[in-house]
Amino acid sequence: MADLAALEDPKMRAVNERHGDDHGVNLTKLRAVAKRLGTQPDLADRLWATGDTPARLVAILICRPKAYRASELDAMLRDARVPKVHDWLVNYVVKKSPHAEELRSLWFDDPDAVVASAGWALTTARVAKSPEGLDLPGLLDLIETHMKDAPDRLQWAMNECLANIGIHHPELRARAVSIGERLEVLKDYPTPPNCTSPYAPIWITEIVRRRAAGQPGG
Known about the structure:
13 helices; 66% helix
């Protein structure tokens, strides 16, 4: 905890707080702390219990994802309100858990939009890697009906799912692009140079182009 406190940068905190992340620790330096510690499940549990954001991020990096029960991951996810903690927990722990599919189903329709966004993130992973059994046209129906008015973090997760359906499933690409064009979600999102816009029609078109050209990032 002292090591993490020493890494706190007020200017970085000000930037992060605009995105809802209550810390000012450089994540490269935080990862170095976690790498030095190595896998330590007991310490991970103690760090998580502090509720401190940098401590929780280290906990995620040094835990043993497959050791958690589904009920433990559910409780952790519902307690992870800081966006970066939420994202890392889903991507670095839940996706590696044997309970990922169970939790995807549990969270997908949760009335809490932040929890539901985790269900959509896990669904997107399946869209890209193991879509067997998913109702992809049904997902597009849900996106078409609900994404425009969804709370920010749920909207972002649904948009990512829309883009991935368009990228990975050519038979649904035209419909995915059409939905994106009609809803215009994230159309005006500020995108740095050399980065791909999160606006689904542009995102889909660019990644498909890169793949056709055999370029990295596709």
